[in-house]
Amino acid sequence: MGLPLLDMLERVGAARSAGAVWSEAVAGFAAIGVAWCHHAYAPPAWAAPGTPARLRLTTLPPSWMAHYEASGFLRMDASRRHCARAVTPLPVGEEFARALGDADWARMCAEAAAVAGIGCGLAVPLRPAPGTAHGGFTLLTRLRGPAFAAWRRAHERSAALVAHAVAQRILEVTEALAPVTAVPRLSPRERECLSWLAAGLRNDRIAERMGIARATVDLHLARARRKLGAATREQALAKALSFGLIEP
């Protein structure tokens, strides 16, 4: 994980309001070439009465947002549909839409480029434990083609992980949502497995490093996810980082 994102994680952890978290996130992502950030989620089942149906934080140009809404692009936005049903990040932009054969989405992306200069980006689904808030965190650049491919190779994994951490922190400091629960208690082995996972190792490589069976690594990580209330590895890592259970 690059230094700008590590620094941003520390500042996000110290922020005490959703606005402060968002400001730190926008600045941190800008340091790695993200031109616009867009974060939206639906409230959890246990949200207090009167909680808005959805919360949206965005740095997208107002001109594009107005065009997006007036053109009915919400219905054809494949990144929104992806975040509602998937857990893996989705590359977004006209070239990816055309590769998928999605003409409507490709038209939307082409207009995003024409209206606001938006290139390619990454849509990160936010899918925590059942009954909690869910949504997406979209990171958009001005890059296309080989330049964006290089950006993905350098930043996709760490940027997706940090997006989860930022979204988790926003939930923690939003008054309308439930208060932060006690820090989960992970075993030393569970924490070690998560630490190696955060370093980019696959389960088989983690097993080699720790001198244990691959199946045992799988079990430790499954237990860690359950204790952290995470649906995916990325969410488990983000929560472990936010709780200070592992070092970034």
From TrEMBL:
Membrane spanning stretches: none
SMART domains to which the protein is assigned, alphabetical: HTH_LUXR
Keyword annotations of the record: DNA-binding, Transcription, Transcription regulation
InterPro entries: Sig_transdc_resp-reg_C-effctor, TF_LuxR_autoind-bd_dom, TF_LuxR_autoind-bd_dom_sf, Tscrpt_reg_LuxR_C, WH-like_DNA-bd_sf
Domain HTH luxR-type: 179-244
Matches recorded under PROSITE patterns: HTH_LUXR_1 (PS00622), HTH_LUXR_2 (PS50043)
Name of this chain's protein: LuxR family transcriptional regulator
Organism whose genome encodes this protein: Caldovatus aquaticus
